[in-house]
Automatic annotation (TrEMBL):
EC class name: transferase
Keyword terms, alphabetized: Carbohydrate metabolism, Glycogen metabolism, Glycosyltransferase, Pyridoxal phosphate, Transferase
Reaction(s) the record says it catalyses: [(1->4)-alpha-D-glucosyl](n) + phosphate = [(1->4)-alpha-D-glucosyl](n-1) + alpha-D-glucose 1-phosphate
Protein family membership: Belongs to the glycogen phosphorylase family.
Record carries keyword Transferase: yes
Gene Ontology MF terms: glycogen phosphorylase activity; pyridoxal phosphate binding
Protein name as it appears in the record: Alpha-1,4 glucan phosphorylase
Keyword DNA-binding: no
Cofactor(s) recorded in Swiss-Prot or TrEMBL: pyridoxal 5'-phosphate
Amino acid sequence: MIELNKKEFKENIIEYLKLFYRKNIDEATNQQLFHAIAYSLKNTIIEQWMATHKTYEEKDVKTVYYLSMEFLMGRALGNNIINLKAEKVVREVLDELGIDLEDIEEEETDPALGNGGLGRLAACFLDSLSTLGYPAYGCGIRYKYGMFKQKIIDGYQVEVPDYWLEEGYPFEIKRPEYAKEVKFGGYVRMIRDEQGRDRFIQENYQSVKAVPYDIPIVGYGNNIVNTLRIWDAEAINTFNLESFDKGDYQKAVEQENLARIICEVLYPNDNHYAGKELRLKQQYFFVSASIQRAVSKYMEKHNNIKNLPEKVCFQLNDTHPTVAAAELMRILLDEYCLSWEEAWEITNKTCAYTNHTIMSEALEKWPIDLFSRLLPRIYQIVEEINRRFVMDIKKRYPGNESKIEKMAILYQGQVRMANLAIVASFSVNGVARLHTEILKNQELKDFYEMYPERFNNKTNGITQRRFLLHGNPLLADWVTKKIGDQWIVNLPHIDKLTAFSEDPISLREFMDIKYHNKKRLAKYIKEHNQIDIDTNSIFDIQVKRLHEYKRQLLNILHVMYLYNQLKKNPNMEFYPRTFIFGAKASAGYERAKSIIKLINSVGAVINEDTSIGNKIKVVFIENYRVSNGELLFAAADVSEQISTASKEASGTGNMKFMLNGAITIGTMDGANVEIVEEVGLENAFIFGLSSDEVINYEKNGGYNPQDIYHNDLGIKEVLDQLINGFYTPEKPNLFKNIYDSLLYSNGYEKADPYFILKDFRTYEAAQKRVAEAYLDKERWAKSALLNTAKCGKFSSDRTIEEYVQDIWHLEKIEPK
Ligand code: 26V
């Protein structure tokens, strides 16, 4: 076991401050201290990292390559300290040096190379892979600008670029020795070689150099460190003006530009495909580099490329890296000269695909002209995959054109990436049981019929190391005091807390901790929002990306409804509530941005209205991200998981709240179904249409929200306030777009496509049950504690074990 050595750690901090900044401890800024501390910690990490890779080589292990456009890592320092089990030593040293660890953690920029659920899942998976001792690489892009920073100005979202590398990132290491060339454009020339084989040569292309940066992923207390490898682009030619003729000069400039632009920025879309050429360039760029490197690494140790599937698995995180299958085919065909059949068999045994959404807007469908112009050789390969696949369909369903219409990879001028991913992979999985069932029985029904053995479910999970041990130290210590520390690496163990669910003293301790965390959040809100909130009120929190299907609108309409009630009857029985929102909207998603403005406008009025005696507060947390997320999960009484049933593939925020003892108010959607199964219907507040009901309405053209509007005065009053200037007297029309979307269909959409009005009354009833339940303090405490106790299933450790068992077949490396 390689451990952090106290004496060396302390000396290193002092040494690095001098070396980097010519400063002594008492002169250094917190930012400089952060760097010195991070580098000192890295010393130990590096030792473990090298030892891990030595073991991997000796054992000739099979490795999973998790290909993902996004890794939403969050800050590393605190997490690394925890996973190194070095907290005690670090705190002692920092104490001696008069440094506060929490202040230093605040200095780290939050690496936000992801949008939301899909990116954060990738980060949780890496944590679990290292902790469980499975050989893995995360492969992604080193975006210069990550997810934008959100500012709220006058109630509106304003996007500010997130230049996360400004101060340098101490945990990364540049690895120029593993650079790869990636080619775009040009054309393909076919020649016949001496053996009479057809060879394909890409000519007149532009290329960039993909240069990897490695970030260590430290396992929990097990000496194992895996790698997150993110690729940066550099220009391939160095200018040598004299030797360039005019054409070369032009090309060199273009290549420089291409290199500069490729990794510039993460697309801040979540669940919305926009068909941008640069996005396809990003996809091929990191995929090509990752696959090339994986194959060369394999060939350094092995002599037969045909056994690649024994040592390598590529997991495609959604369709974004699907060109991987075609890129692997290209390498096998063009560089290793395998036959099509041989190459296809290897590819098909090496690639596996995870679907993360059924939202049709998110489906990637590239125009063929764009795709073939940018990736001419890859396109030829996709064409051949498609040709053979269509032959298979015809063989199986003779004369059935509709099967081809639905399943072909190339159709009506488009490359359908999900279809390619399914055809090229040996495994296709959804991310929660309900989601996988919907894939099998609705969205991907035809593929399921053709390849039933490929389909499987992997219900998502989260890492308890970040979301309890790091994010909620008070509760983590309490849990450990009660049941020992097994839960840190074996979350089902936390079920042992059930034994305390009838014990009044334990329940009081549990709720005291919640109260402390509420105070911590209230302080944050006071500092950031200048709002005083009542720490005895019910903290009802909805934090996630802003999307109509997630229905933040239902939540705020309900707040407006409650406010109307209170105004009419200020003396009604009403337990004080604080409604907290946090959400980023994609920059171009106008309706989502309107909803943010609505939440803030409602908050501005209600928070200032003294006539309701501070009984309702509405808070919008600016720039919701991993780091402030940890504060929010820890402080929640109620977790809002209210998506339209069938739309949320899984949800993982729901699990983070549950782990921290919040009670879910939610629909039977995504992983909520499984959460309720674990915790019991009596320990959640469930409402709304079922996914079958939603799907049925959708098949029959929707429903008529006008009936509800005209017959339910409470709802009508709230909706009218969207257009009568009640919240924005100076601009009464501001929310007309929202009002219209709930009541009228337009060319593209049905009226109220997310069933907000349809579910309003059952939601309101569920909220009433929340308020009533909260009055019985002991019952509430029991429910909250049971949520923590019953969340064992939702560790990403369990999810990863299932991936390993069913898909990756990796060997576990035992700690040394
Ligand atoms: C999709 C697209 C579409 C093309 C343009 C850019 C872009 C960027 C990201 C995405 C990902 C959307 C899918 C996604 O994030 N799904 C979420 O995945 C979580 C992890 O499985 C799951 O818990 C959430 O329910 C699901 O919405």
